[in-house]
Structures are given as C-alpha cells and as structure tokens.
Amino acid sequence: MAKSLTAQELRTESQEDLVTKLKEAKEELFNLRFQAATGQLDNHNRLRTVKREIARIYTIMREHELGIMPLASAEETKEAAE
C-alpha cells in the first residue's frame, strides 16, 4: 500500500476487496512496528497513516454491515475501475 486510501475509493470496493486490503494493511503495520522496534524505520509517519487506513477500512465495512452504505456489486466495481 504505497499511497493512502480514501474513504470514497474504499466505498467502491467489494467486501472481498476490503478484506484483502485490510489484511495487507495489517501485514504492513506489523512490518512497520517491527522496523520501529529494531531502529530501522525511516518514515515514522507511515505508522500513523497505516493505522488510519485500517480504521477507515473497518469503518467502511461496518457501514456495509449496518446498511448505511450499500455494498458495491461486481458490476459497479468493474465500472469504477474503468
């Protein structure tokens, strides 16, 4: 995850894509924490950014669960990609 994800971008993703992005962000956070503990981390702001991305993904997933924002269908996801 090179760049920060916006909530608008995440709202166009399907549930499976959100789960994938969440897993990737958690792995990145683990690696960043490990680098910070060993003194190898160059960009400490990235820790904060990744934590916020994780929270943003959880928020979007919860919105879907509560029905606040409907899930993006496979067709809508393809259209957004084009």
Automatic annotation (TrEMBL):
Pfam families: Ribosomal_L29. CDD domains: Ribosomal_L29_HIP. InterPro entries: Ribosomal_protein_uL29, Ribosomal_uL29, Ribosomal_uL29_CS, Ribosomal_uL29_sf. Keywords: Ribonucleoprotein, Ribosomal protein. It comes from the Bacteria. Gene3D superfamilies: 1.10.287.310. The keyword Metal-binding does not apply. One of its GO terms (cellular component) is ribosome. Belongs to the universal ribosomal protein uL29 family. This is Large ribosomal subunit protein uL29. It comes from Nocardiopsis mangrovi. The gene is rpmC.
